[in-house]
User: Fold this.
Amino acid sequence: MLDQNKENQLNNWLEESVQNNRIPFGEISISKKNKDIYKYKIYTQDEKYKNNKLYRIHSLTKPITSLVSLIVLEKNNINVKEPISTFIPEFKKGKVLIDEELININTPITFEHLLTHTSGLTYGFNRSNQAILRGNTEVDNIYREKGILERIRNSSYTSSDFINDLTSLPLAYQPGTRWNYGLSSDLLGVLLELICKQSLDEICKNELFIPLEMNDTYFPSVNLKNLIPTFKLSLPSGFKLINETDQIKREHKFLSGGGGMISTPQDYIKFCNYILDPKVSLINDNTLSKMKNNQLKHEMEYLTDKLNFYDFTFAGPGTGFSYGFATIENPNIVPQKTPKSVLSWAGAANTIVWIDQINKIVFTFFTQLIPFGYQNYKKELHEILYSDIN
Assistant:
């Protein structure tokens, strides 16, 4: 069981966070050695949603797409260092925009680059020096002009449209040279569809969700029940429910491997426990180890330039990146108290997960609040769980 003092602190943190309008509601679940040791949920919003259990997990879709990609690549004897132009020839002509000049790529984008977010792709977030997710490169500006994020959200948008869009845009960096948050996982999803000749939802279901009994994780469709609505910050009064986020209004042709899934904390803990200590044989141990250990050849201090990503509890000095998760490489210089080798990621509506490989713990904190990073919930929760670390 969880230490009583830590249990009390987590209870108090969740209660006070709701009471003080730091979150609209919240749910914390912890497992240790694959056994549940803590669960607490507070929901004080509209009563009709009190028993709903499905969350939009946004970018927590990415690690799932990574694992499914590794399963599919291994089954099809495709090396992670295989250029993606083998399947999408248009990427052979890739260009990088540097100081307003288009130059040829030095090395082709590989599956490994997509798995580690070193492909050179970006997102086109709004230009900002305040937000955690920033779009301050030259290429981000081109993505914005193209309206790439808006196009992806259109229900008629297809995987073919996505390929056409990405192959017409330059890269922000030479492949393999820099971690840069972007559309890499979405491109992985499209590649899986090309390799398997199936839709991404069918691939994920057959390769992962059925074997791990993740019955509440999938790409949502119209008439979905049980979806928890998303709230947005509305200071000083608290939070405002975003209309129609408790339902799926239209079927989407493009299934986002970077952010399109729904899930529950219970299902996501099953997924994380597979990473931590697999009880089902899906891929070989050596392949799985690439999801558990840093795969970058370079330090991430460069993220201090604030061009693309600015939350050092996830990515920055002292961290690395595996095939799907941020990794703690130097606990002494990250902002939060933490052991080494912790894996973590999060979703845009503040669904936060980490895997403590040393203590065999999986920790999930789920809410549905936009924007991401309104408060540094991850740092605060680490301070509680690891209060005994000097």
Summary: The mean pLDDT is 95. The chain is about 30% helix and 15% strand. Residues 80-196 form a domain with the Methane Monooxygenase Hydroxylase; Chain G, domain 1 fold (CATH 1.20.58).
